[in-house]
Write a structure and sequence with these properties.
The protein is mainly beta. The protein has 2 helices and 10 strands, in the order E-E-E-E-E-E-E-E-H-E-H-E. The chain has one domain: VC0467-like (3-Layer(aba) Sandwich).
Length: about 150
């Protein structure tokens, strides 16, 4: 398989009756340990300011990033000029970074919804697991641009 961080995979009809039905996932890590990514098209039912820790923040959308570790927030963005310490995963897409800077930029309206996606949870695969799921027809690789 020719994967790299920045690849987007889309669920096929084989997953239509599962948690992953109709989802698209951005792969943010792909290495000898496996793969990690975030569902980019499944909104979480609450907004950022609905979470206790961010109750004074703007009502910003959160995405349901995946079924793993639903206790933490993650982010991808295309604004390294506003958010330091992010890891460039592909072209102008960055994973992580200084979350306080991101929240400040959201609240002062420097960051727009088209600049950042915040996720609760993530998707993860052990080495070879994602390749097997693609081989069995659960996922297809797409060339969609995120930002």
């Amino acid at each position: 398989m020719n994967f790299h961080p920045g690849t987007i995979i889309k669920a096929t009809t084989a997953l239509s009756r599962t948690y992953f039905g109709l989802t698209s996932i951005l792969i943010t890590e792909y290495n000898e340990k496996g793969a990690m990514g975030f569902i980019i098209n499944k909104l979480f039912p609450k907004k950022l300011n609905d979470l206790h820790e961010f109750r004074h923040s703007a009502p910003f959308p959160i995405y349901e990033g995946g079924p793993v570790d639903n206790e933490h927030l993650y982010m991808i963005h295309c604004r390294p000029d506003l958010i330091e310490e992010g890891i460039n995963i592909y072209n102008n897409i960055y994973y992580g970074g200084n979350f306080k800077q991101a929240i400040t930029a959201i609240n002062n309206k420097s960051l727009k919804q088209e600049d950042i996606k915040i996720f609760i949870g993530y998707c993860g695969w052990d080495l070879g697991e994602l390749e097997s799921e693609i081989d069995e027809g659960s996922w297809e690789i797409t060339l969609t641009n995120l930002f």
